[in-house]
Structures are given as structure tokens and as C-alpha cells.
Design brief:
This protein is of the alpha+beta class. It has eight helices and 41 strands. Helix 1 packs antiparallel against helix 2 (53-72), helix 1 packs antiparallel against helix 4 (104-122) and helix 2 packs antiparallel against helix 3.
Length: 704
């Protein structure tokens, strides 16, 4: 018998596989279609009033569809979880026909099962925030790890914004970040902004951080940070000259706290290059004490000579987000600083755009492929000194994640302040404070290191609050363009679930690129809303209109309706129609009228200052904490009020994207006119309570 030629053998082998491959493809397609149907039915049920025929029909069909999905998935555990979910839906019709229905947990389960099947090798094509890149939509560039088709959701009636934001042009200082064409990744991140009362007069002042500008020949043009004093009546006076804060550096982020416990707010400013610790002298001036305090740079064993250049010293590092917090509940504030990419002035000066974004503009390299800069933890040992305790406290950044936003928050409500770090194109970090002087990394097991698909996103900004009123703090993280801003719901027991699609955030945040973010009760109804500051990093994306992306973008306001958020940006006033490439975001009551205003930093432009003009007439209360010694401003305090419901906030240093918001816990009360009860729990767990407190004012509460 003549042997088959090699090509014929190959053809016969492939032909024998085709029926199996076709069968597997049909099975994947069938399960994916069933999932789409189940999600559509669940959301149809959510959109209809309970106890109606349309609601009951949608619930019943969703349960049947989920049972069919269970037959097609690979693992027994997933099959069991799906069958239990369908049983809960049917029981829902029998036992609670009139209660409001939320599809969030069911949609999240379908997302998780789809991700599990794909990870197991079945490559299930489910409708989540993304699918993996295909040959038609390849992952170009250092950020392009997750492009895919835009998520879709059920059409809903338009919602009119209950608040109006007015753009107030009151700050004349432009903030810069590199050159016109943004050839190096250092030129993409922009800088943060701070709201803090530096002179103790009861009005929030504004501090702007800027980097250098670069000419087309890559020559530096220094610009200085700026301090604006709030004079009242929406007048801000530039008092930078002689303040000590008017430094010229490649600035990144800022956070505030009274590190030396003298009753005056100090500032920490991160840079590419040495960082600054500005001690408040109490007379309108500040002194940089970072070298003496031991916090001028991130600790590294060695640096190369290439890190030097005009304006930069040997050993320059790139620090980004920062936060003061009382890690050990000893009454003084420690400091955590995130690092992004390890680079040098010479690399910045000779950078060229060599990658491609979505088949269009040429772009900078990174962060993928570039060495990450490690984060650092500095322990406050008193007498104005800090020591590097990163490894000793279990906070070593061995993964060298590309760190941006840093949040100090007690997410598990055990009385000890934890840390959450948003990393760009690498898994986020969640460090749980064990209360014994050490932290443990729990991001992966808690479900907040990656999204619900098991994929690391390009994290930028971060915040936390109890959006659903269950008493637990949830996380939100902003991400890159052609990705979504991710909302992680805290389920308790150290577990979170990605509910981005379920709460209506996926589709509206997909095209824009998110940076600063804040949970804030914009309309004072007692539910925290969401604000996102947006802007691209590629200026030349405007040259490719077919991509339907822009460098300058509108910011977004999402109003909380209990189980879902509604994008009301288009009807939220002229301030939300401004298009700039935004970065940092700070929140506070700039005019002391009881509602929350915003300051947003912009690339190579003046900041956007948004005055909140609510239409509701709702009541409110704000809480400031003061202590006669130790942690004077109550940084890290957990504030809970009771009155018209129970709400919880925290007083925090840092957060958002490289920015500092007011050190005040602010609550909307809706139509409830008071009085309220207030509980203050300081780091470590000591708690104080006040009864019968009035509303529509700032309550300054002193803890012993």
C-alpha cells in the first residue's frame, strides 16, 4: 500500500476534526445566545412593576433559560449555582410577588459562569464588558489589553438630572503635562488637585499641581503649582507667591493631612523626581521638609545614572497616588505612596510614538513592557520623621504594578484602615489591615483585583461608598477607553462582585476614558451618585473620526436610583457640556451652601470648577471631626448618621485620581428635616455618639 503524501495526511487529519470543531462551536454559540436571552429577560423583569403579568412572565422565562444554560456549562459547581438561581427566581414569584426586584446578582452569576467556562478552555463567547481581541480588533499599544465590542443594555426612558452644574471660570492657572503630541507615557497622566482649608477660616481653598511643558524640540518649560485662597462669593485669589507651595516640578498627585499633629493641614505632593512634604507654618506659608522627614523619594536599592537630567537628581522616581492614614491607630498619620513606571529624563527627551491605537493614531509605549515603580509605605515615628516600613508591614509591591489611584478605607468595617490601589493594566491591590501591625494582600480572593471576567483593567481612579444602602462600602474604579468603569459590590465576608453591567454603568462608560471619580450625593436625596472625569491620552485620536473617539471629552454624572445608576450628564447643566481632557477630581462644598461642588484638573488647560445648583430643596448635614491631640482632623474616621435612614461615610486623605477632597463627611437627607444621631468611629475602633443633632449645617464634633 502506498503511503499517503504528507499534505494528504494533513488534510485527512483536519477533516476528521471538523465535525467536532463544528459541534463545539455550535454549543458555545448556543450557550452564549441563551445567556443573552436570560440577561434580557432579567432586565425586562426589573423594568416592569412586580405582581404584573409582564413581570411574572419574564421571571418564569428567565428561570427556564437559566436551567437550559446549566446543561451546557462544564463544571458541576456552576451547574449547581445556576439551578439554585433558577429556583430562587421561581420562589420569588411565589413568596414575594410585590417586592422590588433586582437582576444584579443573577447577571453577575451569569458573567462569572461564562468567565469560568472560558478559563476552563471552552472559550464561551459571553456578553460581558468585553470579549478578547480578535484579528479584526487587535490589541494595539501598551494599554490595549481588552478591547472589544461595546456592551449593550435594555433601552430605558431618559432621566432628567435633578441638579444643575454651572461652569465657574474662577481659576486662571493652566496645568501642563509634557508636549503637544504626548510622545512618552509620563506625558499622559496629568496631575491632581486638592480642596483643603489651609488657613482654618472655614472655606475650602484650592491647590493645583502641574508638570512641565515640553516644546516640540523636547525642551522643558517649567510651570509652578498654584494655591488659591477662597475669599467667598466664588472669588479665589492666587496666593502662590511666597507661600512655599509655588514649586516648579513634574508634579503628579497630592494628599492632605496633619502629619505632625499641630492642628494645621499639611500637603504631600508626588512628582517625577523628588516628592514634597509641605509643612504648614500657620502663617500662610509652607516649608518642604520631605528630605528631613525621610519621604522625598520611593525607596529603591539602586538607580541608574540615566535618571538624571535638568531638574532631576540621580535616583528620580515617578510617584503618583498618595494617602495619609493611621495604619496602626497610634494617633499619628502614616503615608502610602504609589509608584507607576520607572523611567528617566533621557528616555522622556528622546521618546517617539511607535505603537498604534485601534488601527489609527500612533501612540506612546507603555505601560506594558516598561518596568513598574514599586509602591512604598512610610511609618510615622513621631518628631516629624517617617521610616520605610513597606516590607515590615506586608506591603511590598513585588508585582511592580503600575499604580495610580490610592484609597485608604475600612472596607470590612473592623475598625482598621485598609488600602486599595488602582493599577494600570495590571491587577489592583487590596491590602487588608489585620490590626496587628501587618497587612495581607487579599485582592484576588476578594474579587477586586480584576473585573468579573477575570481580566486586569487599566485602573486610574478609585473611590468607595455604600451605594446600595446595605451598610457595606463598595468600590468603583475608572479605566481606559474601550473598557468600562467597574463597580464592585461588597457582599460581606471579604467578597465583592462586579455589578457594572447590572447597575447600568457598562455601556455609558465604554467609549470614554475615566480618571477622577467620586461617590457623592449630588442631589442630597440620601443616595450617593457617581461622577467621572474623562479624557483621552492620545491627542491625535481626533485625526481619525471613524474611531468615534475624541481627546477632549465630557465628564459624566450618574444619579443613583437605588439598584441602578442613570446617566443624566446631558441634562445636568452647562458645566457637564464642557469638553476637555480631564484628570484629577476633588469634591467639597466651596460656597458653604450645603451641596457638593467639584474642581477638575485638565491637560494643558485651566481647571473646570463646577458649582452645584440643586433643584430639590433637600436637607443635608456635614460632619467634621476634631481632636485636641493626635489625629486632629479625624482622618480615617467612619461617620454613621441615623435620621430618615442610616448612612455611612469616611473622612479620607487622597483618593479619586491623584487628588484630595474635603476632609468632611457630607450627607444628603432628602425631605428629612432632623434631628439626626451621629456616630464617629476612629481608626482602631474607639467610638463616640451624639444624639439630637441639627441639620442643614456643618457639625464640628470633638473626640477626646
Amino acid at each position: 500500500m502506498r503511503p499517503h503524501p504528507p499534505l494528504l495526511v494533513l488534510w485527512l487529519g483536519l477533516a476528521s476534526l471538523f465535525p467536532v470543531a463544528a459541534q463545539q462551536a455550535n454549543q458555545r454559540s448556543s450557550v452564549a445566545e441563551l445567556r443573552r436571552q436570560a440577561v434580557e429577560l432579567l432586565k425586562r423583569a426589573e423594568a416592569n412593576p412586580p405582581a404584573t403579568a409582564a413581570f411574572g412572565e419574564a421571571i418564569a422565562q428567565a428561570a427556564d433559560t437559566i436551567d437550559r444554560i446549566a446543561v451546557g456549562v462544564s463544571t458541576p459547581a456552576d451547574q449547581q449555582a445556576l439551578r439554585e438561581a433558577s429556583a430562587r427566581l421561581r420562589a420569588r414569584l411565589r413568596s414575594a410577588p410585590n417586592e422590588a426586584f433586582s437582576s444584579a446578582s443573577f447577571v453577575a452569576l451569569l458573567d462569572r459562569v461564562a468567565a469560568s467556562d472560558r478559563a476552563a478552555g471552552q472559550e464561551l463567547e459571553f456578553q460581558g464588558s468585553y470579549t478578547q481581541p480578535t484579528t479584526k480588533e487587535p490589541a494595539y499599544g501598551g494599554h490595549g489589553s481588552a478591547m472589544g465590542p461595546a456592551p449593550t443594555e435594555m433601552p430605558r426612558a431618559a432621566v432628567t438630572s435633578p441638579v444643575q452644574f454651572e461652569d465657574v471660570p474662577c481659576l486662571a492657572t493652566k496645568t501642563y503635562c509634557g508636549g503637544r503630541t504626548k510622545d512618552h507615557i509620563l506625558e499622559s497622566g496629568g496631575s491632581g488637585v486638592a480642596m483643603f482649608d489651609y488657613d482654618g477660616d472655614g472655606r475650602l481653598d484650592i491647590y493645583l499641581v502641574t508638570a512641565f511643558e515640553l516644546t516640540d524640540a523636547r525642551e522643558k518649560i517649567p510651570h509652578r503649582n498654584a494655591l488659591y485662597r477662597n475669599e467667598g462669593d466664588w472669588t479665589f485669589r492666587d496666593v502662590s507667591a511666597g507661600s512655599g507651595l509655588e514649586v516648579a516640578a513634574w508634579g503628579s498627585g497630592v494628599c492632605a493631612g496633619d502629619y505632625d499633629n499641630d492642628g494645621r493641614l499639611d500637603l504631600y505632593v508626588t512628582n517625577f523626581g523628588p516628592n514634597f512634604l509641605f509643612r504648614n507654618n500657620g502663617n500662610g506659608t509652607f516649608t518642604d521638609v520631605a528630605p528631613d522627614a525621610g519621604v522625598a523619594s520611593l525607596p529603591r536599592a539602586a538607580r541608574t545614572a540615566s535618571s538624571t537630567g535638568p531638574g532631576f537628581s540621580a535616583g528620580s522616581s515617578w510617584s503618583t497616588g498618595c494617602t495619609f492614614f493611621d495604619a496602626d491607630a497610634d494617633g499619628d498619620l502614616d503615608l502610602y505612596v504609589a509608584g507607576y513606571v520607572s523611567t528617566s529624563w533621557s528616555e522622556l527627551a528622546r521618546a517617539h510614538r511607535t505603537l498604534v491605537w485601534r488601527g489609527g493614531p500612533k501612540t506612546m509605549i507603555g505601560p506594558i513592557g516598561l518596568p513598574g515603580e514599586p509602591d512604598a509605605f512610610f511609618e510615622n515615628v513621631g518628631n516629624g520623621r517617617f521610616v520605610d516600613a513597606t516590607a515590615a508591614r506586608g506591603l511590598s509591591d513585588t508585582a511592580r504594578g503600575y499604580g495610580y489611584g490610592v484609597l485608604a478605607t475600612d472596607y470590612d468595617a473592623d475598625g482598621w484602615v485598609d488600602l486599595y490601589v488602582a493599577n494600570d493594566t495590571s491587577p489592583n491591590f487590596l491590602y487588608r489591615n489585620r490590626g496587628d501591625g501587618h497587612f495581607e494582600s487579599v485582592g484576588l480572593e476578594s474579587g477586586v483585583a480584576m473585573n468579573g471576567e477575570g481580566r486586569a483593567q487599566a485602573g486610574m481612579g478609585v473611590d468607595s461608598a455604600d451605594y446600595d444602602g446595605d451598610g457595606r462600602l463598595d468600590f468603583v474604579v475608572t479605566n481606559f477607553a474601550h473598557d468600562v468603569n467597574t463597580l464592585y459590590r461588597n457582599r460581606g465576608a471579604q467578597q465583592f462582585e462586579d455589578v457594572t453591567s447590572a447597575v447600568g454603568l457598562a455601556a455609558p462608560t465604554f467609549v470614554r476614558m475615566g480618571w477622577g471619580t467620586a461617590f457623592m450625593d449630588a442631589d442630597l436625596d440620601g443616595r450617593v451618585d457617581l461622577f467621572f472625569a474623562n479624557g483621552h491620552i492620545y491627542p491625535n485620536v481626533d485625526d481619525y473620526p471613524d474611531l468615534q473617539e475624541t481627546y477632549r471629552q465630557k465628564n459624566q454624572l450618574f444619579v443613583n436610583h437605588g439598584t441602578r445608576f442613570a446617566d443624566v450628564s446631558d441634562s445636568a447643566g452647562g458645566g457637564l457640556q464642557v469638553m476637555k481632557s480631564s484628570r484629577g477630581l476633588a469634591v467639597g462644598d466651596l460656597d458653604n451652601d450645603g451641596d457638593l461642588d467639584l474642581v477638575i484638573s485638565n491637560m494643558d488647560d485651566v481647571p473646570t470648577v463646577l458649582r452645584n445648583r440643586p433643584q430639590s430643596g433637600h436637607h443635608w448635614a456635614a460632619v467634621q471631626v476634631r481632636a485636641p491631640a493626635g489625629n486632629r482632623f479625624g482622618v480615617g474616621a467612619r461617620i454613621t448618621i441615623e435620621g430618615g435612614g442610616t448612612q455611612t461615610r469616611e473622612i479620607r486623605s487622597g483618593g479619586s485620581y491623584l487628588s484630595q477632597s474635603a476632609l468632611t463627611a457630607h450627607f444628603g437627607l432628602g425631605t428629612f428635616a432632623g434631628p439626626i444621631a451621629v456616630e464617629v468611629r476612629m481608626p482602631g475602633g474607639k467610638t463616640w455618639r451624639w444624639q439630637n443633632q441639627p441639620v442643614d449645617r456643618v457639625l464640628t464634633l470633638e473626640v477626646p
